[in-house]
Every structure is written in C-alpha cells, then in structure tokens.
Amino acid sequence: MTASLSQLSGRVWIYPGDPDPEAVMPCVAVVADDAGSTVVDAGQSPAHARLVQSALAEAGLPAARRLVYTHHHWDHTWGACAWEVEEIVGQESGATLLSAEARRSWSQEYLQEQVVANPRLGPSFKARARAMTGWADFAVRAPSRTFTDRLMLSGGIEVRHVGGKHAPDSTVVAVPGSGVLLLGDCFYPPPFHLREPGPAGEEIDLRQISALVAEGFDWYVDSHSPPWRPPVPE
What is the mean pLDDT of residues 121-125? Predict the structure, then answer.
C-alpha cells in the first residue's frame, strides 16, 4: 500500500491504514512541530515505517523527534526499529510486555512454530509473517520513557492511559490545540486469541468510547477506520 499524509486538523496529519483487514496495517498520526514531529504509533513493520517516513518528507514536515505508542500490540510497534528518534513514549505496563516480546526469537520459522502450538494465534501471527520482508535488522523496541497515568509532552500533547479490554496499556493522545483525540484501539474487543467464548468477547467497549466522545473533540481517530467526527445533537 502506497499513500500520503493528509492534514486532518491543525498540526495533526494522518497516514491512512490499509482498509483490507487482513493486512492489519493501522493508520499512523503525525503531530507536526518545528522542534521535531511526534509520530503516534510506529507502523506494523519496518517497511510500513519507511512508507510513513517517505510521506513525511514529501509533505515537507519536520523529521520525527519521538514516537508515542498507543499500546504494545505488534501492528503499532514493530516499525519502531526503522525510526531514528530521541525517545519512545509508552505506558509502563506496555513497556514490560514489550521487553518480554523483545526477547523472543522472531522469524518466519518461529511464527509457524507458535501457530502449530496454538492455532488461535493464526490470524495475528500469519499477518505478522506477511508484513515482514526480512528479519536481519528487526528488533522489538520497548519505550525509553514511560508513564503511569498521564504525561504532558512538549508542544501541548497529552498522553493518557485509559486501559480497557483490548490492551492493558491502551493510551489516547490528545492534541487539544488541533481538536483531535487519537484513540489507538482502546475501545476495540480483545485480540482474537484472547477473546472469551461467546458474543461478549467480540463487543466494543461502549462505555469507554462514550466517555471519550463526551469530551467534545472535533475529530476522533481510531487506528483501523477513517477519522470521524461525533454526531451533532439534534
């Protein structure tokens, strides 16, 4: 997939995700700043990260200064090793999980072995195999800067832990001056291999998303849908 960055609102630009759900390629957000841009989520592979980097240069935006993870899942973090940044910001529980992930022997063979051992991993691990073009320079990168509940970054960016069923470290990134709230996957159901049997395991977290919409941002961006605006009360 080849795309470009488009300006959503103010300093917030969006590199769109792939609409094919089997690609598992989420959108990546860029908050432009003359001191260096903040990139929200690293991409699902080094190849994905390089596409975003090319789009960043083509748009004439400042080079990346930092990455912020919305959560630890592979499709949001596996591109980090392709970014040259001063810091990677993530919630502390996700940092622990990523440190453990970094110690695993990632390769095509390892992915296949894991699926044989646990077939429920199939959708996730087969998507990882498709995303990766090589493993020689690949590494999972844990955050270099962690936080517990909230963190204010330079440029008026607020990073806030919200948790939820999808991932324990789910984080939203607010850019109030641009009227944008970046949601990651915070209100999604758990990943397939972690869902409980029955329909409840597939339900979105309505309480979570309702509370965030009530905050009244102009734009909301979740990782696997186009940016959207909350309905206007009649």
Answer: 95
Distance CA 121, CA 193 (A): 6
May I ask the CATH architecture of the domain 6-222? 4-Layer Sandwich (3.60)
Q: Estimate the crossing angle of helix 122-131 against helix 108-117, to 10 degrees.
A: 170
pLDDT tens per residue across span 2-21: 689 999 999 999 999 999 98
pLDDT tens-digit readout, 157-200: 999 999 999 999 999 999 999 999 999 999 999 888 777 776 66
Q: Considering only CA atoms, which of 42, 7, 4, 9 is closest in space to residue 25?
A: 42
Nearest of 44, 25, 31 to residue 5 by alpha carbon: 31
Distances (CA, A) of 41 to 28, 110, 201: 6, 25, 25
On whether the CB atoms of residues 81 and 137 are closer than 8 A, the answer is: yes
Q: Is-contact 162 65, C-beta < 8 A?
A: no
CA-based R_g, the chain, Å = 17
Tell me the C-alpha distance between 35 and 38, whole Å: 10
